[in-house]
Design a protein that fits this description.
It is a single chain. The protein is mainly alpha-helical and about 350 residues long. It has 2 domains: about 35-165, CBS-domain; about 180-350, Orthogonal Bundle (Tetracycline Repressor, domain 2), CATH 1.10.357.20. Helix content is about 65%, strand content about 10%. The strands form 2 sheets. A 3-stranded mixed β-sheet has the order 1-2-3. Helix 9 runs parallel beside helix 14. The protein is elongated and about 90 Å long. The model has no long low-confidence stretch (mean pLDDT about 85).
């Protein structure tokens, strides 16, 4: 009901809520009071909880005596203190395998985390994935139990976030096959416009060396190779970095190690492909120094691609800008500009 009502205008919301029975209306209104895409919207309000001083026998007797109060699915019994503050979780497996006189607090799980109701659902999904949670209690601003989130709901959010990042990396937004032409055009146009600006910047670099290209036409043939290799290498590093940022695997403590690794990978790949392109330049155009120039440009551009592909998403994330949304344009600009400048600049010095 919340999923439907939240997309209606105020008048229609009032009409729908007015048709609900009292308890259902209170539950929907309470869920709508939490921020959009928060744990409060994601949680289910039906919980199985018990005082933390209860025994296993008392808990089992309560469950059997109150089947109508139980949700359709649940994985834990949430332990609470007199203020309804969650203090632990007991799995159903440990509950059923323990003696009746054992205190619930004595068989609670070691891994226990509570989720603030105002927490972003993306952070919730990350916590479930990172700490291998099955379910987690949700608390309000006073740390009182208000609901529970289960792994199936958290994984749906995680899948949606992954899909969103992939679409943003490609600059196509959240549109699907059912979107009309106008909506799809509006969603893609801004990033195509950004790409046009970056292409113009690369063209301006090329224009600085028009006399060099005119004096050695083979440069025009080989230029796209340098730019393409740099762009692909940058995209590889970018994809790894954006994914690591989304899963919080890339942090301030390991960022320099990751950047160093990507730069070294770019250097090794650059040297390998430099040998290949040096031989190609020699055989294709019969100019040994042309092979040296493109080989050196290849090394420079792949090293810069590894650096830019990792550093740019990190910088954007620090600035509060979604790295999945904006990194691609910046990385492409850097690799194109550096690739053309290195190739044509070295050609101007070495060949002419």
């Amino acid at each position: 009901m919340v999923d439907i009502v939240e997309y209606l205008d105020e008048d229609r919301q009032t009409a729908v809520l007015g048709g609900l029975e009292g308890p259902d209306r209170m539950a929907v209104e309470r869920a709508l009071s939490w921020p959009e895409e928060s744990a409060g919207r994601l949680m289910q309000v039906e919980t199985v909880h018990a005082p933390d001083h209860w025994s296993v026998g008392e808990m089992i007797d309560y469950l059997r005596a109150n089947p109508d109060r139980l949700p359709d699915q649940f994985y834990h019994v949430i332990l609470v203190d007199p203020r309804m503050k969650p203090t632990g979780n007991v799995t159903l497996g440990r509950l059923l395998s323990s003696r009746r006189d054992v205190r619930l607090a004595d068989i609670s799980e070691e891994m226990f985390r509570v989720i603030p109701a105002s927490q972003d659902e993306e952070e919730v999904a990350y916590a479930f994935n990172q700490y291998h949670l099955i379910s987690a209690p949700v608390v309000d601003d006073d740390d009182r139990l208000v609901g529970v989130i289960t792994i199936d709901d958290a994984m749906i959010v995680l899948d949606e976030e992954h899909e969103e990042d992939i679409l943003r990396l490609a600059g196509v937004g959240e549109g699907g096959l059912s979107s009309n032409v106008w909506e799809t055009t509006k969603r893609r146009f801004p990033w195509l416009a950004v790409n046009l600006v970056t292409a113009i910047l690369a063209s301006m670099v090329i224009s600085l060396f028009d006399t060099v290209i005119a004096g050695f036409v083979a440069l025009a043939v080989l230029m796209p190779i340098v730019a393409s290799m740099g762009g692909n290498a940058g995209t590889q590093s970018l994809t790894v970095a954006v994914r690591a940022i989304a899963t919080k695997d890339l942090t301030g403590s390991n960022v320099w190690r990751v950047i160093r690794r990507e730069v070294l990978v770019g250097l090794v790949n650059g040297l390998a492909f430099a040998v290949v392109m040096g031989i190609v330049g020699l055989i294709w155009f019969g100019a040994p120094m042309l092979g040296v120039v493109i080989a050196a440009a290849m090394v420079i551009n792949l090293v810069v691609a590894g650096l830019a592909g990792t550093a740019i998403p990190v910088i954007l994330e620090k600035l509060g800008i979604d790295p999945a949304l904006a990194s691609g344009a910046f990385v492409t600009t850097v690799t194109d500009v550096v690739g053309f400048f290195a190739f044509l600049g070295l050609a101007a010095v070495v060949l002419l």
